[in-house]
């Protein structure tokens, strides 16, 4: 049988199978249509071997896309099953690669997906994308140059384990510098002691000062905003700024003496 007759007979068989599936919901017809197009799945999946995904997994996902295409195919629309199936095969493979290529999904928007599957082949070399090259790629893909640069950065990165591997105790991993020690009992108790020192004990030490000295220390050191100046306090107490400075020095010495035992025991 000549190739032309063989192809004509194959198309006729496909039309019969499609009619059985559409009109009678014949599952055996669907099975035969899927099996007859498995070579198409293998051919399409080869184009995605550069993403580090096993070829068997790509064929498996592409086969799922083929089954969906066979189920949804409408012969009356004038589109060949092969053309319709390619769309679904690629869609399933794309989704699988995006979910499994990295732990964190890289492409979520339509523009990012377009960049993910085209940027590698459009780059001149493996180094970073320059401003001119990013602008050129952005124009060809109808996206923003900033999106090209961002996707190139994402593609050049790699996953990092949070904890060290069992055979690498000295690995510098996020767990080594992202640990939160603030809730550890020792730190909690130390925080409570500091809070007590800064509130109860400080108030007790301030109470040992005379009213004028306390007023000067509180105005100069304990205000959260706009601490008073020596000249402002001098005007308030009708003395010189130098006298205010002397009173402040004496008051601070007395405070330090009262708080020293508490700081040493904290």
Walk me through the topology.
Elements: H1 3-24, H2 27-36, H3 38-46, H4 55-72, H5 81-100, H6 110-122, H7 131-141, H8 145-156, H9 174-177, H10 185-207, H11 211-221, H12 230-237, H13 241-265
Descriptive labels:
Four Helix Bundle (Hemerythrin (Met), subunit A); 70% helix; Arc Repressor Mutant, subunit A; 0% strand; 266 residues; elongated; 3 domains; mainly alpha
Would you kindly provide a written description of the structure presented here, covering whatever features stand out?
It is a single chain. The chain is built from 13 helices and no strands. It is an all-alpha fold and 266 residues long. The protein has 3 domains: 1-101, Four Helix Bundle (Hemerythrin (Met), subunit A) (Up-down Bundle), CATH 1.20.120.1810; 104-178; 185-265, Winged helix-like DNA-binding domain superfamily/Winged helix DNA-binding domain (Arc Repressor Mutant, subunit A), CATH 1.10.10.10. α6 (110-122) packs across α8 (145-156) and α11 (211-221) packs across α13. The mean pLDDT is 77.
């Amino acid at each position: 049988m000549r190739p032309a007759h063989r192809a004509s007979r194959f198309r006729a068989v496909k039309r019969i199978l499609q009619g059985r599936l559409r009109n009678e919901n014949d599952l055996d017809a669907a099975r035969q249509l899927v099996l007859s197009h498995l070579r198409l799945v293998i051919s399409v999946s080869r184009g995605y071997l550069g993403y580090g995904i096993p070829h068997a997994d790509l064929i498996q996902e592409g086969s799922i896309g083929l089954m969906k295409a066979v189920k949804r195919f409408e012969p009356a629309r004038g589109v060949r099953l092969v053309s319709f199936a390619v769309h679904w095969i690629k869609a399933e493979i794309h989704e699988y690669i995006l979910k499994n290529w990295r732990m964190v999904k890289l492409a979520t928007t339509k523009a990012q997906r377009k960049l993910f599957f085209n940027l590698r082949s459009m780059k001149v070399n493996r180094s970073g994308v320059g401003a001119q090259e990013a602008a050129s790629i952005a124009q060809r893909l109808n996206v923003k140059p900033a999106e090209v640069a961002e996707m190139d950065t994402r593609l050049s990165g790699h996953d990092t384990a949070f904890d060290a591997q069992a055979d690498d105790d000295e690995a510098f991993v996020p767990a080594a510098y992202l640990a939160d020690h603030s809730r550890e009992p020792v730190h909690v108790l130390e925080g409570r002691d500091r809070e007590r020192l800064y509130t109860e004990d400080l108030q007790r030490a301030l109470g040992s000062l005379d009213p004028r000295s306390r007023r000067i220390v509180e105005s100069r050191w304990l205000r959260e905003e706009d601490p008073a100046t020596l000249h402002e306090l001098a005007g308030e107490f009708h003395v010189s700024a130098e006298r205010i400075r002397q009173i402040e020095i004496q008051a601070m010495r007395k405070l330090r003496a009262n708080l020293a035992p508490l700081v040493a025991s904290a």
